[in-house]
Amino acid sequence: MAFMIGMGRSGTTLLTNMLNSHPRLVSTPENEFILFAQRSYRDKDFGDESVVRRFLRLFDYNFHTEPSIWVPGEKIKEDIKALEEKSFTNVCKLTYLNNPFAGQKENVACVIDKNPVYSLHVRTLNRLFPSAKYIVMVRDYRDNVLSRKKFAYRPTSVFELGVSWNFYYQEILENAEFLGIPMHIVRYEDLVSQPEETLRKLCTYLEVPFDAAMLDHKAKASEMKRHLQENTSGEKFKKVMEMHGNLESDVNTNRVRAAEKELSAEEIAILDNICFDLGEKFGYVQTKPVEKTAWDLKKNYYEFKMNLYLARQKKYYNLPVKQRLPFLQRIKV
After folding, report:
1. Is residue 332 assigned to a domain?
2. Nearest to 134 by CA among 41, 12, 40, 251
3. CB 209, CB 110: distance < 8 Å
């Protein structure tokens, strides 16, 4: 198992399509079923058919904050029956292998689950999959904020967006250090400017040979588009295509440093103030941050909100599934 984490709008979907083009890798679009199910199912015996039925019934619900675009195929029931060790973690791996984008791959070496929200739950993932690898996808905070601002569901200030970027990567790095996990960092800018070199390094980390098919990610993007058209509502399809419609284009650097032209000088100064230390750690060129008391107060306010958000998330995912399902929309992908 490997988990791809990092703030959304950092190139995670592009990298997912590239990895899924490798004949020995399966990389899935977002579906946070592990986090949703682990509280109630991590100690269950999946040799019990009623446990399997209840687990698979979870996929009838939209428990993801973003539109989920896949559920496991029918073959998963047979695969679970054939398992020698019917543990929660093994069933999770089978779920990934039964996603509609996996194809008929043989001798799969690694499954990669891409989920930005997992950035805040590394300790939970580590308890379930202690030998898992972690790919940290990062993008210049100014360009990331610009992209998230464009696709936000509501008007959002650069203070909130900058603080959340900082919060996510702070959580990732602090947990990596605490748990002693050697994570592999992939910068979006390197992926689009030097894709082969970046992918070769990542393949070494994942312990699989590099395959040139990864450089032709457009076929997987087209496959995802066809799946969406055939299996989702028009509204969901439109929303996903707005966010990821450019994935069928060639890899390019058009959006690198776009914030320099599209954010105001004050917005960039605010983001430098918030993200300077981590931005420097990830190798992004910056100007020395301006210090303003009013900015610090706003930053502290949004940091407080992010800590509350994390506390609520942990409490929510620690509730039994049966207490959460009644509040979720029942929906089939």
Report:
1. no
2. 12
3. no
Cβ-contact 52, 42 below 8 angstroms: no
Report the alpha-carbon distance of residue 73 to residue 112 in Å, rounded.
Answer: 18
Q: 59: domain CATH number? A: 3.40.50.300
Count the domains in the chain.
Answer: 1
Per the domain annotation, does 115 fall within a domain? yes
Please state the separation of Cα 11 from the chain's center in Å: 10
**Token couple for 203:** 């393949």
Domain contains 28? yes
Quickly tell me which residue has 């999770």 as its tokens.
92
Q: Which domain holds residue 176?
A: 2-218+227-327
d(CA 90, CA 173): 27
Name the nearest CA neighbour of 19 among 294, 286, 170, 208: 208
Query: Which residues are within 8 A (CB) of 289 and not within 5 positions of it... i.e. 6 or more apart?
Result: 269, 272, 273, 276
Exposure of 169 by Cβ count < 10 A (0-12 exposed, 13-18 middle, 19+ buried)?
buried
pLDDT in tens, 221-275: 777 777 666 766 666 656 665 655 566 677 889 999 999 999 999 999 999 999 9
